[in-house]
Amino acid sequence: MMGTGKTTVGRALATKLGYRFVDTDEIITQVTQQSISEVFATSGEAAFRQIETQVLAKVCAYTHLAIATGGGVVLQRENWSYLHHGLIVWLDAPTELLSTRLSADDTRPLLQTGDLRSQLETILQQRQPLYSQADLRVVVTSEETPEQLATRILQEIPQVLKQPSTLPQS
Ligand SMILES: Nc1ncnc2c1ncn2[C@@H]1O[C@H](COP(=O)(O)OP(=O)(O)O)[C@@H](O)[C@H]1O
Ligand SMILES: O=C(O)C1=C[C@@H](OP(=O)(O)O)[C@@H](O)[C@H](O)C1
Ligand SMILES: [Mg+2]
């Protein structure tokens, strides 16, 4: 979800792994030569989603790469086949924390109309079933730095790679 820290924590995670890092929004900004807000304003959300899918389709093929996506990447069914090239981490943060973080932020076009808190709640409610399809859910609180969160993600990844029930019996 927007504001949970995908861009910030994803970068920290890549550093810890010795991986490269890309953010799909940053690539979209580079290829369109427009900010995300400008893409939404001039071309609309549907066009943005098409570009996002094209970018994801390219970057998902790389190994040793941590990818931060936009929070709406879960909305397009075909994106899931690309996401599943890797391990999908869901940063799950309460709307209260998100609204504190994003109250002075005007870079997320979907949050620029109406009351921020209720917008976040509405979008989160719609997307929760999609986010819950991720491989790993990490609950975000205000207490941990991006580096601490990245460390915790690294600690939790082995548990989803080696589900006891899927291991061969010895
Ligand atoms: N663990 C954290 N602790 C404090 N602030 C954070 C943390 N993670 C992200 N932030 C801040 O929250 C805001 C949103 O983070 P960002 O990485 O852009 O989220 P996303 O990419 O999920 O929308 C930024 O201002 C960022 O600096
Ligand atoms: O959730 C969304 O629909 C969006 C999230 C944004 O990225 P972040 O999740 O990094 O804020 C960005 O892709 C765009 O504003 C749409
Ligand atoms: Mg981001």
UniProtKB/TrEMBL annotation:
Read off the InterPro entries from this record. Answer: P-loop_NTPase (IPR027417), Shikimate/glucono_kinase (IPR031322), Shikimate_kinase/TSH1 (IPR000623)
Q: Pathway, per UniProt?
A: Metabolic intermediate biosynthesis; chorismate biosynthesis; chorismate from D-erythrose 4-phosphate and phosphoenolpyruvate: step 5/7
UniProt binding sites for substrate: D25, R49, G71, R127
Q: Where in the cell is it found?
A: Cytoplasm
Its quaternary organisation is:
Monomer.
Described by its record, this protein's role is as follows: Catalyzes the specific phosphorylation of the 3-hydroxyl group of shikimic acid using ATP as a cosubstrate.
Protein name as annotated: Shikimate kinase
Report the gene name: aroK
